[in-house]
Design a protein that fits this description.
131 residues, alpha/beta, Rossmann fold, six-stranded mixed β-sheet, 5 helices, globular
């Protein structure tokens, strides 16, 4: 399971279950991050666990991918061009509710506060490393 130096879960039971319990069938997971090394690293880890992984380079692309492919889980970087992860999470929560994890290199309190106001399942601080 990937680990992070800091993990905040507003809905800890659900988020912990999502991250630690293998499912009967693979999940379709959408990863949106403008940093290719993070995006490809997470994709590799999740594919090794048997999941189908979709990737997007910004929030706008993530929303389009979600509309077309109906993922089971979205992992969204907070700071991305065009549509950021916070905006994308708001739209996803309204249009097609699904578990959302926010990912960022920033541990600024205002971002954490904004994230906790959203219907998300977790907030992870980069770097994320496989254990």
């Amino acid at each position: 399971m990937p680990s992070s130096d800091a993990i905040f879960f507003p809905n800890s039971a659900t988020a912990t279950h999502l991250l630690t319990h293998p499912l009967q069938s693979p999940m379709r997971i959408l990863i949106a991050d403008d940093e290719s090394i993070i995006r490809m690293g997470l994709k590799s880890i999740l594919q090794e666990l048997g999941h189908e992984v979709l990737t997007a380079v910004n929030g706008r692309e993530a929303l389009e991918m979600a509309r077309r492919h109906h993922p089971d889980l979205a992992i969204l970087d907070i700071k991305m061009p065009y549509t950021d992860g916070l905006q994308a999470a708001k739209v996803l929560a309204r249009s097609q509710p699904l578990p959302i994890l926010l990912l960022t290199a920033f541990s600024e309190q205002d971002l954490i506060d904004k994230a906790t106001d959203l219907p998300i399942h977790g907030y992870l601080i980069k770097p994320i490393k496989p254990e």
